[in-house]
What we know:
Blueprint: E1 9-11, E2 22-32, H1 38-47, E3 60-69, E4 72-81, E5 100-106, H2 110-114, H3 116-125, E6 137-142, H4 154-162, E7 169-171, H5 180-195
Parallel strand pairs: 2-4, 2-5, 5-6, 6-7
Antiparallel strand pairs: 1-2, 3-4
The chain binds guanosine-5'-triphosphate (GTP) and magnesium ion.
The site of guanosine-5'-triphosphate has 23 residues, from helix 1.
Amino acid sequence: MTIIEENKYKITPDQNNPINEKKLILKIILFGDAESGKSSLLTQLVYNKFSIEYKSTIGADFLVKNLNLDGKVVQLQLWDTAGQEQINSFGSSFFKNTDCCVLVCDLTNEKSFEKLEKLRTEFLNKLDNKEHDNFPFVLIGNKCEQSDERKVQDSQIKKYCESHNNIPYFETSAKNDVNVEKAFEEIARLIIRKYNY
Length: 197
Ligand SMILES: Nc1nc2c(ncn2[C@@H]2O[C@H](COP(=O)(O)OP(=O)(O)OP(=O)(O)O)[C@@H](O)[C@H]2O)c(=O)[nH]1
Ligand SMILES: [Mg+2]
């Protein structure tokens, strides 16, 4: 299924947008190890809620967040994938027109950091356009409030991001709502700048 139109701008009559302004739609997919906190980040972003209980995502979920960025209405269409799922199990239409892939790791779990490279390369293999060097990834290190439990060091993250075309990096806590909205606003800005939307 594809939900993005060829034209990135769409006129949508809705209550929050009474004058039918043009709305920019961005498609963002989250990948990361199971339990890294992808669903928690999106639940915090969209519903301002957090639960300590773990319910693994099955397949993929879809959420929407509207932002007002410098007077521009931007709709984030957010695909939350299951960490237990193999990227190869998603059909190629799932990846069509993706504007950004957000890789999420749990800063308290080294394995979730080690898994990022596999996810990044598997994701790239799914794209039809071969603009591999240019595709915008963003890395989120989640659970940052657990500083005593931290297993992934800044230096590892810095080295990883630098070695892949300077992937932008954000540190978040879905639990304490640290940097969550800011990260996604910055992600939207990065996409807008990159594609000149
Ligand atoms: N301490 C802490 N726990 C968190 C944070 N974010 C998520 N968690 C917890 O981590 C566990 C996994 O969170 P989920 O958001 O379900 O992880 P997920 O990446 O969606 O997992 P899958 O759907 O299986 O891929 C849950 O128990 C959450 O409560 C955080 O910022 N801090
Ligand atoms: Mg999930």
